[in-house]
């Protein structure tokens, strides 16, 4: 099983650039742009966490269920999406992050 890093990354970047273009042309507000990507990062985190928790429970109780290989694959795919959305989240909130880091150093 191989993971589709390039496909997921390309689609993620295209969707992000589209939403950023809508924000840049004032079609949507900055707040809506942030809210949409915050919801996407939340959903991808919950799915990744939920699948990891389920895999841990199945391993801990030594349950051999045929769905486990599919679960591992989709956990990896959503984890890749989570990584790209995390990068977008950092880009969106870069100003706040910079203020936070500089205020800690003072």
Number of strands: 0
Portion of residues in beta strands equals under 5%
Spans with pLDDT under 50 lasting ≥5 residues? Answer: none
Q: What is the ordering of alpha helices and beta strands?
A: HHHH
What average pLDDT do the residues reach? 90
What's the N-to-C terminus distance?
A: 49 Å
Q: Which of globular, elongated, flat, extended, rod-shaped describes the shape?
A: extended
Question: Topology, please?
Answer:
Blueprint: H1 5-24, H2 30-60, H3 68-92, H4 94-105
Helix pairs in contact: 1-3, 2-3
State the main characteristics.
106 residues, mainly alpha, 4 helices, 83% helix, 0% strand, extended
Task: Write a compact overview of the structure shown.
The chain has helices at residues 5-24, 30-60, 68-92, 94-105. With 106 residues, the protein is an all-alpha fold.
